[in-house]
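Comment on this:
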Amino acid sequence: MKTVLITGCSSGYGLQTAHHFHAHGWNVIATMRAPREDILPRCGRLHVLTLDVTCPDSIAGAIDAAGPIDVLVNNAGIGLVGTFEATPMSHVRKLFETNTFGVMAMTQSVIPQMRERRSGVIVNVTSSVTLAPMPLAAAYTASKQAIEGFTGSLSHELGHFGVRAKLVEPGYAPTTRFSQNTDVRIEDLIPQAYAAFAKPIFAEFAHPAMVTTEADVAEGVWQAANDFSGQLRFPAGPDAVALARAG
């Protein structure tokens, strides 16, 4: 029986992905900064661990407690919508600490065991903002684009040892709490000078033509984790798929 460790499972994509793998008979290690066992089924195949991907000691403790891992899903992330001009650099650094350096640190922590076994999969969840330029997402896009390049390069060097690296690129999901983990309000990131520019964009956000569901992303992660074809990118959701095809 295989084991998957998923980061950021307190809600959204991570929680749905944990349910998805559990339903398919896997051992699931669901991690989150503030553990909540009430949101997941009580089962011997499911364990909840405390994990802050920005803290080296927390990462080391979680990896030690988890034991052998067949698949790592780097899902934990911080969202941000707003103009770059008004975004404090301190918050840009927070984005990168979680979305970029957190993913890299988690990846580095599992590589040795996977390399020694000559098997394993690392699935990095990015975003459809990496598929086409989108407004009011410059800093967020940068943090996710870095992981796109990182994963592509990593897939070559780890492939030598039979370890696979994959990307899942979710589309827009208005029901997800995109800015949940930030301490910056969207209103503070839209200066008056940008109001006319931002208004139609937010109107489109409110009534998107296509949306991505949490189930779409969970299925995308499942497909990536079980893929042996060499495919690197897995767009998740109809809008993400459309963008990938257009590109």
